[in-house]
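Q: What structure does this chain adopt?
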Amino acid sequence: MDSKGAKDAVKSFPEPSPHAVVDFSVPEGRPPSFAPYEAEFFRSSDGDIISHDHHLNEDGDHLETRTRQVARTVNDRTEYHTETYTVTVQDFNFSIDLTGLVARGPVHWSFADSEPAYRGLMVRQVQAPEGRRKATKEETESFKAWEYQRAEKGYPPWASRDGNQNLDVLQSSQTLRQWADEYCSSPKHLKEFVYEKFVHNWNIQGLAEAIRGAILQTHYQGRISVDFNLSATKIFIRPDNRLSRTLSKTWVKVLLCIFLIYPFIWLFKRYHSRGGGRWEVCGGAYALKYTEPVDAASWKSDRNDVVPSAPPRIVETELGPQKLYGEREGEWFRRWEAVVKRSVALRVQRSVPMRDVREGPADALDGYMHGNSLDGYN
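A:
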């Protein structure tokens, strides 16, 4: 495959935006099946059921203590004793699909030379003035910590560590074409070129806190897990040879591991000069919201770009009036807040993500309160 082929391979893939799903669940997973619980209760004179049962006054997600009879035989004598154990009861588990909210993308970006990235070896490197060198442990740990913070704050991949986003998106000293040339000219048998897709411009950390706050307003006191899960975020380009194609099959890898063959392949890939190599220096960024000056020219997309589902709106920002594409996280939360609360109150268990507020129990809860600092909420 020549360099033009590698570049075209990335462009010829369908460019769906990364799949983003917000998952609300209890961390430990579903409990084992058990018999229905019969609570203590009585009926009032008008037929209402009243219960003071202790179990019904505990947290919804809790460690419940149970008992069982265990038989043990010693020297032909069978003894029975009572054993206690605990299980975690899951109260609710549902998710919301955010995929359709992507407003613009992809914007092609590349890492700066100073960032530890895979540049042809099986270890991270930085591009120094004197040439490439292996990244130090401190550099790698600092970079990984920044990647996590950047994702939580919703910054794009090219943002600086002080939060500045008004930078060139192509920060590498090499162009994307030059990276493709380098990959294609490499003689390594197990090399791979990775194009990574990022979702940005929503304050994920703030949104997660707002969702937790909404759940707590329902007086739920159990453990809460709010996760933002992404899928379909990478495109891998690998050599057209039998070994590389075979190792791309998961079931083959499992068999090779079972028969202790894969460790030798890993050593070849890791240390042999013609073994493996990774190029992870660029990708595409997808914005959930996007602003630009009011007098900016109308945006035109090519065939692979996400087309905004609605025309831009004029909103007030710190920089004055701006054209806004997409939905702000506060606006999204305002639409879904009542659904989240109601789903928690009704202990919804749902495996298929909700894509529209009409798919959930959307009745507003008594005591619904406004007031949130998310962008676009008020």
